[in-house]
Design goal:
20 strands, six-stranded mixed β-sheet
């Protein structure tokens, strides 16, 4: 449970209809496997103790008595375990029969949570046997079935973990999710961060896709973890088949899912600190203490009818089995990735189109280096002009070679501009920079930050003045990863009139350019884009070798691999994880790729630079938000420029 991770399971045992002893033994067997795996919350299907498809056998006291014996027997097997368990069982109370989740922990049945919405349409006929829950309560005396210490209530209940206050568990049963106003809505308003659904959802064509979407969307709407556990093999096939489709979701993401028609245990880890962070961040998310539960709209599901019980878990480190992508900004699926890249290009170009039209700019001016960032920005400029139905010659692309420019990047810049049909200009800034060094008394052989930044600021001055010449606006090329690290020269490449890449991380820039190259119709354009993709990332501010072909400066040698920094950015900034947690996940995701000490080194670099370089982000040019992470001071990120990184750096060494 370190770092907020809780291991959970959806368990679909083999059953035999109305054979309680057989079913209980199978449930206990799966519970033992869950215990071995370190599971802390285990959910079983609806009415799994008897079988969902017992039909009129639910009127038989023999079956109902045996079911209660089975519930107590299962509870007793958990006496030496802190696992919170929910199994489906029929329960008699108030002279009626209820379809319930029996919530079990530490050797006892803690509560029976009844089903609210009973389907009585198509193949379902639950109202014939069960009563819907309408807020009534009852005490279920289990003494005759062997539980002597505690008389559990039957009522809607959420369970609050004493050791992890972010973990609050609520229960709903099958149809409770499928209705227009799900029970889980009210459970979440009452504080539940984990919804457990005990289900017996039969399988028909296309239902698995809808079910998956339903669970994913509900977990996203509630900013919650969701365990959906469905009945499987063994239920009666008289009129239906059950596939045992189990799903574990977290805030819209499917973490784990069973194969259809395969009984078994589906396990993953839900991050409750992550969920709590997101709920705190969303100002419209209702705090349970502030919600008006007395309104007529909430009906019998109100605060008074959702009781709170405490439960305890033994603390320890949760072994991780869920996947953490090395590149969280990039979809792993090729089709989804292509769709994402296409959408991003559309967003970037429409944002720029609006700015060009608003400023009545006759041209756009862009510095083109032959590198990835300026290439993407140029492609966006071309798309914006196409949207405006203006010629590509209204784009003035300026290459500004100096001491570190290689023949390869200089050549690629010209070929790219020619292939796109833009206006190409070359301004060699070497003489101007040397004159500037002479003016301020800087030795050319001193390759310090003055040597590098002098070139970057000269380039920006050239672009700004050319923009004045041609009644244009300067389009910035810097990306999100560079902004996070402050890898930009203040009032140099840091500045423009509009930054089209400001919300695009470096790892994603590469894929967008790759997508453009893969889908363009020009062989010349495709070839030059592919060569740019193969070129190492460099600011080219230090002199080349004598031949002018080899770079002497590579960005990732200086600040670290961008795939690591984008990983740190996503989990450390987007999700607010502690640096020690980010480090743990990075070592887990990049195992075998980087030694632990290398990850530690660059993680410290990330936080050190992120804090010290905030002043550059505090005065960023405009640029549209594209993804879930942006560092605009007018958008998602407001941070004092003089904040201290000490706490974060210390946490890395914990």
């Amino acid at each position: 449970m370190k770092d907020g991770f809780i291991k959970v399971a959806a368990c679909t045992p083999e059953i035999q209809v109305a054979d309680v002893d057989f079913n209980v033994d199978k449930i206990i067997s799966q519970l033992e496997k869950c215990r071995e795996e370190g599971v802390k919350v285990a959910v079983f299907p609806e009415l799994c103790i008897t079988g969902y498809t017992c039909q009129d056998l639910f009127f038989q006291n023999a079956l109902l008595d045996k079911a209660m014996e089975g519930v107590v027997k299962i509870a007793k097997t958990t006496a030496d375990s802190d696992m919170l368990v929910a199994v489906g069982a029929p329960v008699r109370a108030n002279g009626k029969l209820y379809n319930c989740a029996a919530v079990i922990q530490d050797g006892e049945v803690r509560a029976f949570v009844p089903k609210t919405h009973l389907p009585n349409y198509n193949e379902f006929y639950e109202a014939r046997h069960f009563a819907p829950y309408r807020g009534e309560c009852a005490a279920i005396d289990l003494r005759e079935y062997g539980q002597l210490e505690f008389i559990p209530p039957m009522e809607q209940t959420v369970f609050v973990c004493e050791e992890i206050p972010e973990l609050v568990v609520g229960f709903e049963l099958c149809e409770d999710l499928w209705v227009a106003d799900p029970v889980s809505n009210y459970l979440a308003k009452a504080g539940a961060t984990l919804i457990c659904n005990l289900s017996a959802s039969d399988e028909v064509i296309g239902k698995d896709s809808y079910r998956r979407q339903l669970v994913s969307n509900q977990s996203a709407r509630l900013v919650a973890g969701y365990i959906y556990c469905s009945a499987g093999d063994g239920e009666s096939t008289q009129d239906m088949v059950f596939s045992g489709h189990n799903i574990i979701a977290e805030n819209g993401s499917i973490l784990a899912e069973s194969r259809l028609f395969e009984n078994g245990i589906t396990i993953s880890e839900i991050d409750f600190k992550k969920l709590a962070f997101e709920r705190r961040k969303i100002s419209t998310y209702p705090a349970s203490a502030e919600w008006d539960y007395s309104s007529e709209d909430s009906g019998f599901l109100n605060m008074e009818n959702i009781s709170r019980e405490r439960f305890s878990l033994e603390m320890g480190e949760t072994a991780l089995t869920r996947k953490f992508a090395k590149t969280p900004f990039i979809p792993s699926n090729q089709a989804e990735r292509d769709e994402r890249c296409h959408l991003i290009l559309q967003m970037q170009s429409h944002g720029l189109m609006k700015r060009i039209a608003h400023t009545h700019s006759k041209t756009v001016v862009i510095g083109i280096s032959g590198g990835l960032d300026s290439t993407l920005a140029l492609l966006v400029c071309v798309m914006a002009m196409d949207l405006l139905k203006r010629p590509h010659t209204d784009i003035v692309a300026v290459t500004m070679p100096c001491f570190g420019t290689t023949k390869r990047t200089r050549s690629n810049a010209e070929i790219l501009c020619d292939a796109l049909g833009v206006t190409f200009r070359e301004v060699d800034i070497s003489k101007a920079v040397l004159q500037h060094f002479e003016d301020i008394g800087h030795d050319y052989n001193d390759h310090s930050v003055v040597f590098e930044n002098g070139q970057a600021r000269e380039r920006t001055k050239v672009l700004m003045n050319i923009a004045n010449q041609v009644s244009g606006m300067v389009v910035g090329t810097g990306d999100l990863s560079e902004l996070a690290l402050g890898w930009a020269t203040y009032n140099g490449d840091h500045m423009s009139m509009y930054g089209v890449n400001a919300s695009i991380p470096k790892t994603l820039v590469r894929h967008i350019v790759q997508y453009y190259g893969d889908t363009c119709t020009s062989d010349t354009l495709r070839d030059v884009l592919y060569d740019i993709l193969d070129t190492p990332v460099s600011p080219e501010l230090l002199p080349t070798d004598e031949s002018g072909t080899e770079m002497t400066q590579k960005t990732e040698d200086l600040v670290g691999p961008y795939e690591l920094h984008d990983f740190f950015l996503y989990y450390g900034i987007r999700w607010g994880f502690e640096p020690s947690k980010v480090k743990r996940l990075a070592k887990y995701a990049f195992e075998g790729d980087y030694p632990d000490e290398v990850i530690d080194k660059w993680l410290k670099t990330f936080y050190r630079r992120f804090f010290s370089q905030q002043f550059k982000r505090s005065c960023l040019p405009d640029g549209a938000k594209i993804g879930s992470v942006t560092l605009s001071p007018r958008g998602d990120w407001r941070m004092p420029s003089d904040a201290v990184a000490k706490l974060w750096l210390e946490d890395i060494d914990k």
